[in-house]
Specification:
By secondary structure, the chain is of the alpha+beta class. Helices cover 46% and strands 13% of the residues. The structure holds adenosine-5'-diphosphate, 2-acetamido-2-deoxy-1-O-phosphono-alpha-D-glucopyranose and magnesium ion.
Length: 382
């Protein structure tokens, strides 16, 4: 018996099941609804895996209720989504159609009954549906350098696939990776201290403020024309790429809500943040949080292989720094959310966002202690 049959036996689950069945009826899906269960560990959207009996074969779909407090213009977001996925699908058809490994290379959205790539329910909830990629999985923590290489190469390939997208995409969250703006927001919340939590976070705040100058480094280089903007993913947490169970290759980049113009460094930085530590993002034993150099090396090699040769030597030389910067930035965001009363990221326990902040800052310290070696490696790789 599959575990989701057990999970779905309670009363709330029965209601969820009928709700999901009703949502499914609004999309062009063929067959009978069987069951829907919560899925994945994302912090933003509500995700469900939903099974349909399609002429005797069980096929799964992902239903997602998009978090519209975070994404204020979900229609524009879905416009980006369709442009990005159809661009990649077109490339696959033209360039790699004969290669069976490429068939699942991008998400495939199912249209609603009226032909939109989403459906709004009567309460205003914003739903979308796409094909479940089977025989693949995401990892919250990466175990081997091989997995790190595969994931990074897929994210690099994603940037390369979108490098020739013509029209500018919508900015789904303005200033998403504007680290100085994130710091300014933290300072504002510190001034207001709306939940009286400030007294608990002295060391964390001091650590962050001591790195104020780092926050604007990449934007200064961008403004000076040293770093170029591309279409980037902007949320390359390692559980946003599906790894093929059979081959171990990164087969499909998911969570496309923040795909928009950005620096490629934001993507590499988030890979270092999520792919080098053996500890979970919310680990409370900080001794476990460390930047593992072999994982960094695999990420760097994988990313450069996937992205190809579009980075200039200057751009490449700033990749190691981006690991530190994005880790610091997410630490700032977790701390801000903790002080604000946990209004942005989903939390499952008191202090969850503070625990997450602490792992980020510990990882920044670990990156700093190995930074020279990280830079030397980036300088030697092509
Ligand atoms: P969030 O924005 O909340 O992180 P995601 O789009 O990343 O939402 O989806 C959450 C999780 O659902 C992913 O980490 C992944 O495990 C799973 N998932 C999402 N899309 C698919 C898909 N098409 N096939 C299989 N699993 C998926
Ligand atoms: C969120 O959606 P998810 O869980 O993949 C967040 C990222 C953070 C990440 C921290 C839209 O990512 O920016 O880096 O949590 N996404 C959004 O784990 O804010
Ligand atoms: Mg995600």
């Amino acid at each position: 018996i599959e575990p989701w049959f057990i999970v779905c036996s309670g009363k709330d689950e029965m209601r969820m099941k009928s709700d999901l069945c009703a949502v499914g009826a609004e999309f062009r899906l063929y067959g009978e609804f069987v069951i829907g269960v919560p899925f994945g560990t994302g912090h933003i959207n509500d995700t469900y895996a939903v099974t349909y009996d399609q002429g005797g074969t069980f096929n799964r779909y992902i239903f997602q209720r998009v978090n519209t407090r975070v994404f204020r213009n979900p229609e524009a977001l879905m416009e980006n989504f369709v442009r990005v996925t159809s661009h990649i699908a077109g490339k696959i058809r033209r360039e790699r159609a004969a290669d069976p490994r490429c068939r699942r290379r991008t998400l495939e959205v199912a249209p609603s009954r009226s032909g939109d790539p989403f459906w709004r329910d009567p309460e205003g909830n914003f739903w979308r549906c796409y094909v479940f990629v089977e025989n693949a999985r995401t990892y919250d923590v990466l175990e081997t350098p091989e997995l790190a290489f595969a994931a990074a190469s897929a994210f690099g390939g994603f940037q390369a696939d979108l490098a020739d997208l013509k029209e500018r995409l919508h900015e789904t969250i303005p200033d998403f990776h504007n680290t100085p703006a994130r710091l300014a927001r933290l300072e504002e919340v510190v001034r207001l201290d709306p939940c009286g939590r400030l007294r608990e976070v002295g060391p964390e705040l001091e650590f962050i403020l001591a790195r104020r100058d780092d926050c604007s480094a990449l934007l200064r280089l961008r403004d000076a024309g040293e770093l170029r903007e591309l279409v980037t993913h902007n949320d390359t947490k390692l559980n946003n790429v599906l790894i093929d169970d059979l081959t171990g290759a990164g087969c499909c980049v998911i969570d496309l809500d923040t795909v928009m113009p950005g620096l490629p460094h934001y993507d590499f930085g988030d890979m270092v943040r999520t792919g080098t530590s053996p500890a979970a993002e919310d680990e409370t034993d900080l001794d476990k949080v460390v930047m593992r150099f072999p994982m960094y090396e695999a990420l760097l090699r994988g990313y450069l292989q996937g992205a190809g040769s579009f980075l200039s030597p200057v751009e490449k030389s700033w990749l190691p720094f981006s690991g530190k910067l994005i880790t610091l930035e997410i630490g700032i965001r977790f701390l801000t959310d903790y002080l604000e009363g946990d209004v942005y990221f989903k939390v499952r326990r008191p202090g969850h966002n503070l625990d997450r902040c602490r792992t980020q800052l510990k990882l920044v310290a670990s990156i700093e202690s190995q930074f020279d070696a990280m830079r030397r490696l980036a300088d030697t790789l092509r």
